[in-house]
Amino acid sequence: MIGTVAMKVLSWLRRNLGLLISHLILTGASLIILLPILWVMRTSFANRLIAYKIPPVWFFTPTLENYRIIFEKYPFQKYFYNSFLISTAASLVALALGALAAYSIARFKTGDPILRLSMLSTQMLPPITLVIPIFLLARIFHLWDSRLGLVLAYLSFNLPYTVWILIGFFQSIPVDLEEAAMIDGCSRLQAFWRVTIPVSLPGLLAAGVFNFILNWNEFLFALILTGRETRTLPVAIASLWTQQGVQIGAVSAATFLVILPVIVLTWVIQKSLVRNLTFGSIK
After folding, report:
1. Is the pLDDT of residue 48 over 60?
2. Overall number of domains in the chain
3. Is 202 part of a structural domain of the chain?
4. Which of 57, 169, 177, 265 is deepest in the core (most CB within 10 A)?
5. Based on the domain organization, do 147 and 90 belong to the same domain?
């Protein structure tokens, strides 16, 4: 009896060995990503004594003291508002301008391959090389320490990549759909707005989420171009490193606040992406 069971187990392992190994690899990769986030969340609810204790304490009474510190001692509600406003504005403007530019390139071959290569080449430059010229321009045009200046800075290097992403989505849409709409009385702009945009919505959502995450997490330009009133969350977290040391509990609470909106946004948009990919062809 035991021998029969062992033979069945070995037979099952032979048939599913590849699947088992792939699941183990995916599980390990997921844990590498998730464990640091879970550890940050755990530390954000720990008091100062438990947060610094080695070996770590796994079971303790959670506290909101760290969150109280960052909202009372530091105006993190203002920093959250700055980050959300700047990231959203830069993403929406990039989508609006990028969609028009990508549509022009996809349908009318504007600029040919040279323009596409030049757009992609902007992503090859290290951001540090652009800091000094963008800072000087911001000072000349009185845009330093302003949200508008940071939005324009983000557009300068996110807009070309947005155009590059959207070109492929517009090229995949059959021209016949727009021609049918124009035969029914639509102008080129109306066909673009009523037919092309709804069908390409998954691509627009993907590009918008990508833009928002890049803007939300950006640190270098936010550090150079913002002051005390326009500071964003990544810069505000860096300010928690003081001469008295790292306030690890407050840093963890602030970091979790930065991560949480991105997780929620991705989860919401993921459902919308699947729905639009399914029904996009019949819109």
Report:
1. yes
2. 2
3. yes
4. 169
5. yes
Does residue 13 carry a pLDDT above 80?
Answer: no
Stretch 201-228: mean pLDDT, rounded? 88
Same domain for 18 and 116: no
Per residue in 213-225, pLDDT tens?
Answer: 889 999 999 999 9
Q: Are residues 140 and 99 in the same domain?
A: yes
Residue 11 has pLDDT above 70, yes or no: no
Q: What is 148-170 written as a DSSP string? A: HHHHHHHHHHHHHHHHHHHHHHH
Judged by average pLDDT, the poorest of 72-81, 125-134, 239-248 is: 239-248
Q: Are 221 and 153 in contact (CB under 8 A)?
A: yes
Show Cβ contacts of residue 72 under 8 Å, excluding neighbours closer than 6 positions: none
Q: Which pTM value belongs to this model?
A: 0.81
Which residue is listed with tokens 């936010």? 222
Q: What percent of the chain has pLDDT over 90?
A: 17
Amino acid letter for position 160? P
Residues 113 and 170 in one domain: yes
- Residue 142 sits in a domain of what CATH number? 1.10.3720.10
* Signed CA dihedral, 84, 31, 238, 142: sign only: negative
* Cβ-based neighbour number of residue 73 at 10 Å: 11
What domain range is 45 assigned to?
2-51
Q: Is the peptide bond before 36 cis (omega within 30 degrees of 0)?
A: no
Together in a domain, 161 and 108: yes
Is the CB of residue 100 less than 8 Å from the CB of residue 192?
no
Cα 139 to the chain's mean position, in Å? 28
